[in-house]
Amino acid sequence: TKMRNVSMVTEFILLGIPHTEGLETILFILFLFFYLFTLMGNLLILLAIVSSTRLHTPMYFFLCKLSVCDIFFPSVSSPKMLFYLSGNSQAISYAGCVSQLFFYHFLGCTEGFLYTVMAYDRFMAVCYPLRYTVFVSHRVCAILAMGTSFFGCIQATFLTTLTFQLPYCGPNEVDYYFCDIPVMLKLACADTSTLEIVGFISVGLMPLGCFLLILTSYSCIVFSILQIRSAEGRRRAFSTCSAHLTAILLAFMPVVLIYLQPTPNPSLNAAVQILNNLVTPMLNPLIYSLRNKEVKYSLRKVLQHLDLLSEK
């Protein structure tokens, strides 16, 4: 409770997306659509993969985990945002703010690590097809999937502790639509310059490291693909990999833009982060799965089954 004595702030006020006064109704409809579409899309992909034994392979196991993250990731900020866009209170409790910051970074980091693991999976499948089942066994998949969450949790705990061990003793208006590190540091009643550097290094290095590993994997993959004799084989391999790369760029570019700016620009940050929070999780099922015959086939079966249930 030492922290409570220092921090007199018991709640924060979320001011919302900068420069959008008067657009609440439009934003509410837009974000509600994005959010529901994301939940539906990812739930359908989960159903399609779980219900088809043909899709019980490492790649789809990781895709399942990505869909789960994509259901929870927008749920960190969207429900609260939709709540106050529809005219309700903009207040969020101290604990609510802590949990928003923690889960945002926990799920964000987990996804970053997951993209890296998925790149490793594709690298093994394309470059070492004969050794693939040994190097990417069920046990390895389970360890890798747990590892992504474990390291995501460590990173998020570190960042959350850094941010909230600061005293918050007066200003409590968060000039944003959820509690994130850059906006919280502005409200602290202490010098935050060292923390900003540590935060930047921590938030910046993780995605950068992942991104470099992913680039390495895909460089090897491209090199391997170019050696495939048949044009059809090349086309199929490129098709899978280009879908993955699109999703990866969509996920990593916003992070680089937001956390590595010398001077933060709230409007640009909000636009980029909304893209990251709402649009990327919505596009992931489309990017990864609708380019894929097996998932399409399984989805069709799921939808027919749901149709039959509704007719009963």
Strand order of the largest sheet: 2-1-3
- Largest pleated sheet: 3 strands, mixed
Shape by Cα distribution: globular
| Secondary structure tally: strands | 3
How big a fraction of the residues is strand? under 5%
**How many alpha or pi helices?**
11
Domains (count): 1
Low-confidence stretches: none
Helix content: over 70%
N-C termini distance: 56 Å
Provide mean pLDDT, rounded. 88
Structural class by secondary-structure content: mainly alpha
Please describe what this structure looks like:
By secondary structure, the protein is an all-alpha fold. The chain has one domain (11-306): Rhopdopsin 7-helix transmembrane proteins (Up-down Bundle). The protein has helices at 2-6, 24-51, 58-85, 94-127, 132-135, 138-164, 181-187, 193-225, 231-259, 266-289, 293-311, and strands spanning 11-14, 91-93, 173-174. InterPro entries: GPCR_Rhodpsn, GPCR_Rhodpsn_7TM, Olfact_rcpt.
Keywords:
312 residues; mainly alpha; 3 strands; 76% helix; globular
How would you summarize the topology of this molecule?
Blueprint: H1 2-6, E1 11-14, H2 24-51, H3 58-85, E2 91-93, H4 94-127, H5 132-135, H6 138-164, E3 173-174, H7 181-187, H8 193-225, H9 231-259, H10 266-289, H11 293-311
Parallel strand pairs: 1-3
Antiparallel strand pairs: 1-2
Helix pairs in contact: 2-3, 2-10, 2-11, 3-4, 3-10, 4-6, 4-8, 4-9, 6-8, 8-9, 9-10
Pfam family, one: 7tm_4
Organism: Loxodonta africana
GO molecular function: G protein-coupled receptor activity; olfactory receptor activity
